[in-house]
Design a protein that fits this description.
4 helices, 6 strands, single chain, six-stranded antiparallel β-sheet, alpha+beta, Aspartate Aminotransferase, domain 1
């Protein structure tokens, strides 16, 4: 998946803002809560997920998904943009957004 395709997905979600303060990563937030980080130079994303989702994705397809940071009930999964299925990525980005969005806002969209 190209970076432009990813940007269309993530910026198409309600109330998403882009944050370019980090020198290497572009962050994406909903109501000031981060849920996704893009490393364009490396062609990778880090997405918020549950610990169970992170483990399942890595076990299912370690060439595409790698574990990243984990704390509390959430974990982050690193994704290789060049190898990920676009439909699966759209679902994962939407779910990461839902984990950070307030419930009322999260309920305004259906999962792709």
């Amino acid at each position: 998946m190209a970076v432009e395709e990813f940007l269309t997905i993530v910026l198409g979600l309600p109330e998403v803002t882009q944050n370019d303060r980090h020198p290497k990563l572009t962050g994406f937030r909903v109501r000031d809560k981060g849920f996704c980080y893009l490393d364009e130079a490396e062609g990778t994303l880090m997405l918020k997920a549950t610990r169970e989702e992170q483990a399942a994705l890595v076990a299912e397809n370690p060439e595409v998904f790698a574990p990243s940071w984990a704390g509390g009930r959430f974990a982050w999964v690193e994704i290789d943009l060049a190898r990920v299925d676009p439909e699966e990525l759209a679902e994962l980005v939407t779910e990461a957004w839902r984990l950070s969005a307030p419930k009322r806002l999260a309920d305004t969209i259906n999962t792709p």
